[in-house]
UniProtKB/TrEMBL annotation, chains A, B, C, D:
Similarity comment text for this entry: Belongs to the NAGSA dehydrogenase family. Type 1 subfamily.
Active site residues of this protein: C149
Gene name of the encoded protein: argC
Name of the protein in question: N-acetyl-gamma-glutamyl-phosphate reductase
Entry GO CC: cytoplasm
Function statement: Catalyzes the NADPH-dependent reduction of N-acetyl-5-glutamyl phosphate to yield N-acetyl-L-glutamate 5-semialdehyde.
Keyword NADP: yes
Primary site of residence: cytoplasm
Biological pathway: Amino-acid biosynthesis; L-arginine biosynthesis; N(2)-acetyl-L-ornithine from L-glutamate: step 3/4
Catalytic activity: N-acetyl-L-glutamate 5-semialdehyde + phosphate + NADP(+) = N-acetyl-L-glutamyl 5-phosphate + NADPH + H(+)
One annotated GO biological process: L-arginine biosynthetic process
The EC number(s) this enzyme carries: 1.2.1.38
Location within or outside the cell: Cytoplasm
Length: 345, 345, 345, 345
């Protein structure tokens, strides 16, 4: 039984961590922080946790957090980098769901996020928490930077092709659609149901913060520059990401062979599931689960390959993947607490 | 480990049984039947079950079903009554999610359902599977008739008042709203997203089949005739039932006292949760879980009491409650397989 | 061609006024005010009005508004009462979509809204803008208080019964469901799509501001006290109100006779449409239109009558009804600008 | 006043034609056919048309249809080609919303649709009803083939670039998202709200029937072969298409210059509206209207251009565009009956 703390428990990734961890057999949640809701019962704000989570939100306190074995940051960008150094110094394992430690190039981070990174010296030691590609490093990490939701779906879809050099690194396109929970639990006009319901739009086409993160991951694998166009869209549903990925094959290879590449790469993976040739991926089939489902198509046999990759943005795209990382770091079964199947319909 | 069969596995209550039972520690699912999809992999139709359910739909076969310890019927009305006698004769426990054995008065059943009941002699021995009110009988039952979704929400809300005679049995009103999954997985115009989405309507106001079932339950408790107006509505969401119940208090009793009555009645119940005075019940807080959440109001201190009762129609209103009954019948922990928290947001 | 001003043009009732009035043959919109968005093009915030509305939001300025023939207030409660006196003094017709002038009893208004009403002396002269019941007074009014959305649906449903004394004035129940646009265009957690989507809940069951307004209208008609329980609900759709109304018949009267009462009352009305016996009302059939559709039921022939009344909360429940009032006040055809049919599907 | 007939009035494009044409000042709808609903009042099936459409569905009868000036086919593919010859022979103008006359190459049509085209000799004379590119031909046509919904959004977005040779004709990508009404009013599992709600998926990635139609239009403009990957997706909303189009610029041209190209091309068009640079297109802003809104982006200044093109699939993507064609054919104002603004929110 390890002691776990959650910093920033009032957002959607925070409540999702609570939902998952409350049923984890090796975890005791000892502290959940919230500045705005300090003193309030967790289950008052989240009645779905009644009868299970009997905690009160407390203001963030380093001393108390230092008594945890693992601390999750489910905070807006810019918070974890303030508090992580003290926790790491005390030997606490830190799993950050925000973007603070995702980019290896601090200058790029400062260009897309905040003017000054608070602890650039820690960035190098942070392990990017995509288990399917960094499992061993995660196992030995003290600080894990969990991938963003879009980067998870896009990388799991593209990486097997780049790993084997099967697609042209120029002209990659990631047309990605997200449910509104990706915008977080913030009072904003754009995600009101009257605005986002029954409508569909692209946003941040000029440049979204997840672009440099995706690019970093693809280039690390390709070992060369990658030219990617990434267009995120807001979809009138709550949970789910559907990435439609386009790349041009560099060699004459059949869809069946491509399928075998994915099967080989992910066949042993607990949470990445390659659908049969001809199938389509549907976000409802992973809703509430930690799975990524991938489908492969080669329309009209042309050399443009289409990869469909779906996840639940709050589970495999955030809190589920964070728990998966924790399981690896702590030597638990990798799917402990994560066996839930998708809620369909 | 008991052997379980599911008859009618291609509907929403069938797939929900599969989702729940696949994670049940004492259950092995040995057969899932479907006439229309016999020979097809279960996970082809339900990709959310991939990697977990490795079964093929088979045509219903009494011989094979007789080898089960428990057989669930997730079939349209009229099927269970054809097959149950043979299974019961072999000592199999039968849990029927359809309406075949819910009404004690066979004549009333034949008026609302089919002209002729196939085995009226079994009706008396069937136990109505509402654990909060018939736990002991369920424990000893061989045949359980699971309550309908509307009747579950309405009865859990009204019964504590009728048990103590606190409301007038005349003029009860149940204004109930259901998500579209309650209509089942059937190709019909009325539940197309283009028809049911972004719209709200009442239906079957002249008389819905769940009316006699609710009335039977209320009258059994009240020990006198009950005059109930029941109006079901179709709500543009997938899962969830919200019952708004109105009754007139027969005595001068405060809302606090009413709250205590519910606390006393349900305080020990694992799956019925009475919210604090002033709170409202929200279907999202029980989505995907086996909970019923109840809130109590007495607007403007008048003598009309308002009870809000929410469930997930496919879990506490169907498959979850059926598994709860199985747990009781088989001596398992009552919440085995049912600990999942609601998926929020 | 009359000159029209709109105060508070950035909310949903404001944009709806713009949509309707921009196609009105006798209206020129000369000013649209907004404190927060002053200086911004209207069509920048509302791209659906591009190519049609070529105006810039201006700060509210009494002098400019006084040059209008008609001024609409699509403002939060408490604004119109500040500005109306000056406009009325200049002979401008004022149509207020907020609640400032709806309640005749100022003390009740101050209890439910703000501590002090700014111009109680005007309340008596304000005409309640429900054309089906106050057409003549509206025609002669200088100040019209448009009914709230819930009150419109509930009163149109209940009033014919109270007019003839057909139902008991005790124990009336209005169980009403609204789409989320009723909450306005405000950045709030509760109406985020992640919160309000795929969920259903009652709210303000202890007492909603529309209760005294409804009660005032019912009592005016009944000429005696009315005991009403009003429970509003939030429905996961954008537009639409569905009122399910329950009353007990005071005499032995058939549903056919009740139907004739409604036909007689509304047969000549342009915007109230009584559906055939047996039909159900569906909010999608009035979406975007100024119609109220009403259906009548008498379940199982008992003496509880069920009236279903649906409107689009932003049209007949707000801006459409306001334009209908303007048409009457200005002697235009009552349906000028309001002929649009519901957008289905 | 012209006499208009509608063949196939019970689908979504049929009811949309009725909604639009019922308010058209130069049109009298004299006949609406339906095999399945013959004898039924139109407003019984479509209560949104009550008080406006007073017609009964009749079985299709060539003699009666021949008395019309214009006949619309809102039928499934394969019907118009059976009946059009007789109507054309009598001088009736025929506007076909199905795919029967869209493809100039009959062999390609027979490959994607039905084995044998019933009147291949008429195909050459059919005019493709995209007014922005074939206005003059439409004005002189007797038979118009209305574009499909996807082809409308994609072509309006891509054609200005191909017209001037600004993008590479290889590697064009059209990632397009449609609301569920595009699937029509058919009782099918896939478009049930429980299946299509709260979920997102691609479909027919291997090849959708609109591909050859789009390709034909793009190649006609480019005057050379075009290599296009077209991936349609099903979005959990009722109305709307959002096309995200990707092409590689063939020359060093700024986004501002591209914007000017679109402004020049569409500046005089009544129904195509180019948004300012930096803006995004949102389907809600064209919901219920005949507009196409287009936004242009060049992410990170790379040479991949991103065009966002949104329409309402049932209006500009079907019935609205068909009425636009009729207006042109009959010499009416092109926007007669089509002035409705988008219904927002």
């Amino acid at each position: 039984m390890i002691k776990v703390g959650i910093v920033g428990g009032t957002g959607y990734t925070g409540v999702e961590l609570l939902r998952i961890l409350s049923k984890h057999t090796h975890v005791e949640i000892v502290v959940v922080t919230s500045r705005t809701d300090a003193g309030v019962n967790v289950s008052t704000i989240y009645p779905n946790l009644r009868r299970t989570i009997n905690l009160v939100f407390s203001p963030p306190d380093i001393e108390i957090l230092c008594q945890c074995d693992v601390v999750f940051f489910a905070t807006p960008n810019g918070t974890a980098m303030q508090m992580a150094p003290a926790l790491l110094a005390k030997g606490v394992k830190v799993i950050d769901l925000s973007a603070d430690f995702r980019l290896k190039n601090v200058a790029v981070w400062e260009q897309w996020y905040e003017p000054i990174h608070a602890c650039p010296e820690l960035v190098a030691s942070a392990v990017y928490g995509l288990p399917e590609y960094h499992r061993e490093a995660i196992a030995n990490a003290q600080l894990v930077a969990c991938p963003g939701c879009y980067p998870t779906a896009v990388q799991l879809g593209f990486l097997p092709l780049l790993e084997l050099g099967l697609i042209d690194t120029h002209g990659l396109i990631a047309d990605v659609k997200s449910g509104v929970s990706g915008a977080g639990r913030k009072a904003e006009l754009a995600t009101l149901m009257s605005e986002a319901g029954e409508s569909f739009k692209a946003y941040s086409v000029h440049g979204h913060r997840h672009l440099p993160e995706i690019q970093q991951g693809l280039e690390l694998m390709a070992q060369q520059p990658v030219e990617l166009t990434f267009v995120p869209h807001l979809t009138p549903m709550i949970r789910g990401i559907h990435a439609t990925l386009y790349g041009r094959l560099t060699q004459d290879i059949s869809l069946t062979e491509v399928y075998r590449v994915y099967q080989q790469r992910y066949g042993q993976e607990l949470f990445v599931d390659v659908l049969n040739i001809g199938a389509h991926a549907d976000t409802r089939n992973v809703r509430g689960s930690n799975y990524c489902q991938i489908a492969l198509h080669q329309p009209q046999g042309k050399n443009t390959l289409v990869v469909l990759s779906v996840i639940d943005n709050l589970v495999k795209g955030a809190s589920g993947q964070a728990v998966q990382a924790m399981n690896i770091m702590c030597g638990f079964a990798e799917d402990e607490g994560l066996q839930a199947l998708a809620l369909y319909p």
